[in-house]
Amino acid sequence: MTSIRQATGRTFRSLSVRNYRLYFAGQVVSVSGTWMQQVAQAWLVLRLTNSGVALGTVTALQFLPVLLGGAWGGVVADRFDKRSVLFGTQATAGLLALVLGLLTLSGHIQLWMVYVLAAALGCVNAVDNPSRQAFVHELVGRADLPNAVSLNSVLMNAARVIGPALAAVLIVTVGIAPCFLINAASYGAVIFGLALMRPEDLLGTGTVARAKGQLRAGLRYAWSTPELRNPLLLMVVIGTLAYEFPVTLPLMARFTFHGGAGAYGLMTSCMAAGAVVGGLAVASRERPTSMGLTRAALAFGLLILGVAVAPSLVVAVALLVVMGGASIAFIAMSNSTLQLRSDPAMRGRVMALFAVAFLGSTPIGAPVVGAVAQAWGPRAALAIGGAAALVAALVTAGRPLRAIVSRSEADAGGEQDDHRQRQQDHGDDAESAQQRSQADHEEHPGGQLGRVAYEELPPEASEGLEGATDGHRTSTLSRARRSDATRQNVTAP
Question: Which of 30, 162, 288, 307 is the most exposed place for a label (fewest CB within 10 A)?
């Protein structure tokens, strides 16, 4: 029982922070509302046009601003107070949902209006996403960041199950418009939580003054830092070719397993359930490692290939549960790695690049994967994503390993040089000591190096020597304290 309580405490330790609890509670409500709107918006477009092209256009318009302007959103996150930015983005997103709901409720909604509102929401997300990602660090600090990121991933995937289910019930019972109106109200939960936070408890890193070339500086910084470049390159490849499940899973359900909407819903729900379990497992870990990130990417790629060759829906669903866990482990560890290893002044821009690689790659990858599925079938489309994940993981894993080996060899060589130097110094000291001993013997043949014993000194000289000795001890103690302080400063994170 004690071990269970300890494991539970490790898994949910970020929730002990008051500000993070407020943030988490608001996100539970808001993200569920967001998924409700996603389902309702797709249904609205199909009701207006009955066109798959129109549905794809809405999706592209919603993600394209993240691709084109996401990096600028990172500059905003670094330049301004992140909590203030989130107040603005959440309020704007809620207003857009309210407008969409009122237009739908009034019956005046048209397709071009949906296009405009989707593009506007994409612009808001381009600014909101990097600020929201980097804000987690200010809520919980460095030590609990991996745990908080994993819990956020659990939240997202739980909402991916809850939101669409609620949307389906509402669409059948009361119509599409209430989904948009409820989503608009759900943003109030985030705003309310932000307002209740204690600003003095936020671990703010300050803001960056406005200057020319901040976007280019962020790009150069991420590219020149291997600990950041490798996860970002992994995410670019995997986000573009592997994370296209809204395209591949419906096609697998319909044309490979000859099922309907129920089969597709089962596949997505099982993947989301696996992601929740995987997120909780990652949340219990202390911090991500490069090897752990590589293993998650390799497992994710292998499981995608397994789903691609699954002989039946039952086998595919079973693999999707495990694949969901691997996928969320990869995302959470990538997110934590980028935040922990980035300079605080660059964190917003780094997380913006993460959003561009993960979300902004959808407008590029979805048409490519769809074309592959059209030409060679859904299995081929999935297989290409799995193979790309494997190759990217193996390529990026080689660089850190080579760097570690090089550093180890350099350290070993340095230790050998130090050992040889110590031996040489020891020999020199021994030779010097022998020479001093011989000189003392020649100068004081009576022995004892001709020194006067302390007790034989007169009182005045004894007091002077005692003071000098105390001064020497005090000086030595001061140097030791300064040395300890220096060591503490050097080893402090």
Answer: 162
Distance CA 38, CA 163 (A): 9
Tokens of 327: 């996928």
Question: What is the C-alpha separation between 33 and 439, in angstroms, rounded?
Answer: 90
Nearest alpha-carbon partner for 88 in 132, 35, 41, 128: 128
Question: Residue 483 corresponds to which amino acid?
Answer: S
Q: Rg for the chain (alpha carbons), in Å? A: 31
Q: Measure the CA–CA gap between 403 and 461, rounded to whole angstroms.
A: 62
CA angle 282, 402, 326 (to 5 degrees): 20
Q: How far apart are CA 210 and CA 231, in angstroms?
A: 28
Residue 6 has a pLDDT of 59
Measured distance between the N- and C-terminal CA atoms of the chain, rounded to whole angstroms: 34
Q: Are 115 and 61 in contact (CB under 8 A)?
A: yes
Q: How many C-beta atoms surround the C-beta of residue 128 within 10 A? A: 23
Copy the structure tokens of residue 267: 């596949």
pLDDT digits (tens, 9 = 90+) for 283-317: 777 677 788 889 999 999 999 999 999 999 999 99
C-alpha span between 239 and 297 (Å, rounded): 11
Q: List, in sequence order, every beta strand (DSSP E) within 265-366.
A: none
| Joined tokens for residue 28 | 């539970």
Q: Evaluate the CA torsion angle 399, 401, 402, 404 in order and state its sign.
A: positive
**What residue type is 395 in one-letter code?**
V
Nearest one of 144, 114, 129 to 49, comparing CA atoms = 114
Q: What is the dihedral of CA 472, 473, 478, 479, to 10 degrees?
A: 70
Chain position carrying tokens 């010097």: 432
Interacting residues of 288 by C-beta distance below 8 A, sequence separation 6+: 146, 332, 333, 336, 337, 340
Q: Which residue has the tokens 């009576």?
A: 446
Neighbours of 478 (CB within 10 A): 10
Q: What is the dihedral of CA 300, 304, 309, 314, to 10 degrees?
A: 90
Q: Rounded to whole angstroms, what are the CA distances from 228 to 124, 127, 219, 231?
A: 25, 21, 11, 6
Q: Flag residues of the chain having pLDDT under 50.
A: 400-422, 425-426, 428-430, 432-433, 435-437, 439-493
Residue 119 CB coordination number (10 Å): 15
> Residue written as tokens 């490849």?
237
Distances (CA, A) of 492 to 227, 336, 341, 458, 489: 21, 20, 16, 50, 5
DSSP per residue, 157-208? HHHHHHHHHHHHHHHHHT-SHHHHHHHHHHHHHHHHHHHHS-GGGS-----P
Q: Which two tokens stand for residue 62?
A: 């919603």
Rounded Cα distance between 480 and 311, Å, is 70
Instruction: Please say whether the beta carbons of 334 and 355 come within 8 A.
Output: no
